[in-house]
């Protein structure tokens, strides 16, 4: 390790956010497993969800394979889920920000799975413009390929743990945009395609146990766009990550409630999945000696999983029976858990929905102005 790297690591250790990650997040994780243990062994109404593969009805003969969009499919959990679902016969649409990484993963999947159906699209989730252009290209591709204009599964998986404040073209915080605003806008834009599905369709949001570390929360346009963090002398990155994951969870429950109110012949379900701690590239901005140490300790505690195991809760969410919606999968084996008390707060949910919808509307209007 060079002097520069050592100095960087020492400075990082002096940051309170590092200790928040190390201590508070570990407590949140242990609490999640403890609750899961109590629920599995002592709760009378502990429910396990069997996995049921998607069925394609005769009315939808034009859909040969259920179409699944996975964001952040070029690394870690997203890549592992893409392999698993391609093996199961889904038509996989990989959405990622780097064309090189996308073409690499497409060839890897096609090399390993003979009859894999894979298509890649470039999208930067921190940019509304990019999300909109992804939606338009996707629709055009469905039309050109003579595929039914619908999708069966959207997995909002992409996410980052950014350690510094970075501003997007839309003047927002990069981490809030990638982890929350981007998935919100993408889901809103793709909802008509999910609703057009001939079989029940589903949104799976990949959230995190770190949402439990948020003890109080204020929801305004400034907080969810992350603009308020630009005024702070140091970027509270651990707080922002937890906050973004709690927002995604609140959004999951509210979208579930709202789609349930609309009567459609084939319904859309909305589910949250929490993989626990998984060894991926998520800690890429943390000094490598510290992330290696963290993984080492987590492994000793028996809490670290490989991506192939970590995707269990995501696959549970994907394969839960069609009527399953508004639940939080954690721990694999079809197990769900109650998320934090804040995540069920109806005032927060409403404030978040209103503020997010306002941002979405502003972006829609801005994009119309530029076209
Ligand atoms: N690993 C864990 O312990 C853990 C625990 C709980 C929840 N999660 C959640 O699981 C999800 C997947 O994370 P991971 O652990 O697999 O991390 P990862 O290996 O770093 O993968 C993240 C993926 O998101 C993509 N991505 C990042 N920013 C993007 C953007 N602006 N637009 C489009 N794609 C973007 C990355 O693309 P590039 O490769 O191009 O950067 C990458 O494919 C995240 O939402 C994370 O919060 C992870």
Automatic annotation (TrEMBL):
It comes from the Eukaryota. InterPro entries: NAD(P)-bd_dom_sf, SDR_fam. SUPFAM superfamilies: NAD(P)-binding Rossmann-fold domains (SSF51735). The keyword Oxidoreductase applies. Pfam families: adh_short (PF00106). The keyword Ubl conjugation does not apply. Keywords: Oxidoreductase. One of its GO terms (molecular function) is oxidoreductase activity. Gene3D superfamilies: NAD(P)-binding Rossmann-like Domain. PANTHER family: RETINOL DEHYDROGENASE, RETINOL DEHYDROGENASE 11. Belongs to the short-chain dehydrogenases/reductases (SDR) family. This is Dehydrogenase/reductase SDR family member on chromosome X-like. It comes from Capsicum annuum (Capsicum pepper).
């Amino acid at each position: 390790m060079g002097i520069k790297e050592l100095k960087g690591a020492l400075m990082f250790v002096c940051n309170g956010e590092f200790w928040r990650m190390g201590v508070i997040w570990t407590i949140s994780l242990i609490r999640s497993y403890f609750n899961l243990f109590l629920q599995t062994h002592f709760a009378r109404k502990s429910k396990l969800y069997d996995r049921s593969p998607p069925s394609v009805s005769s009315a939808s003969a034009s859909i040969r394979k259920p179409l699944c969009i996975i964001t952040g499919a070029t690394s870690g959990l997203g890549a592992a889920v893409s392999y698993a679902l391609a093996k199961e016969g889904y038509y996989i649409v990989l959405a990622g920000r780097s064309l090189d990484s996308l073409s690499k993963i497409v060839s890897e999947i096609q090399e390993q799975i003979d009859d894999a159906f894979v298509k890649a699209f470039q999208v930067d989730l921190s940019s509304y413009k990019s999300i909109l252009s992804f939606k338009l290209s996707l629709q055009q591709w469905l039309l050109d390929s003579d595929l039914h204009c619908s999708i069966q599964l959207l997995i909002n998986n992409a996410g980052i743990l950014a350690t510094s404040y970075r501003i997007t073209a839309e003047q927002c915080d990069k981490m809030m945009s990638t982890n929350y605003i981007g998935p919100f806008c993408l889901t809103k834009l793709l909802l008509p395609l999910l609703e057009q599905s001939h079989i029940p369709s589903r949104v799976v949001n990949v959230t995190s146990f770190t949402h439990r570390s948020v003890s109080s929360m204020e929801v305004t346009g400034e907080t969810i766009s992350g603009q308020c963090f630009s005024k702070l002398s140091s970027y509270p990155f651990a707080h922002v990550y937890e906050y973004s994951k709690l927002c995604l969870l609140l959004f999951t429950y509210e979208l579930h409630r709202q789609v349930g109110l609309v009567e459609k012949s084939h319904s859309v379900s909305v589910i949250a999945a929490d993989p626990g701690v998984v060894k991926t590239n998520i800690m890429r901005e943390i000094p490598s000696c510290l992330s290696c140490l963290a993984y080492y300790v987590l492994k000793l505690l028996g809490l670290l999983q490989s991506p192939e195991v970590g995707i269990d809760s995501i696959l549970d969410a994907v394969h839960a029976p069609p009527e399953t919606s508004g639940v939080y999968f954690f721990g694999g084996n079809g197990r769900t858990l109650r998320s934090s008390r804040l995540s069920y707060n109806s005032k927060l949910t409403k404030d978040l929905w209103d503020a997010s919808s306002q941002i979405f509307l502003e972006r829609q209007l801005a994009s119309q102005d530029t076209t």
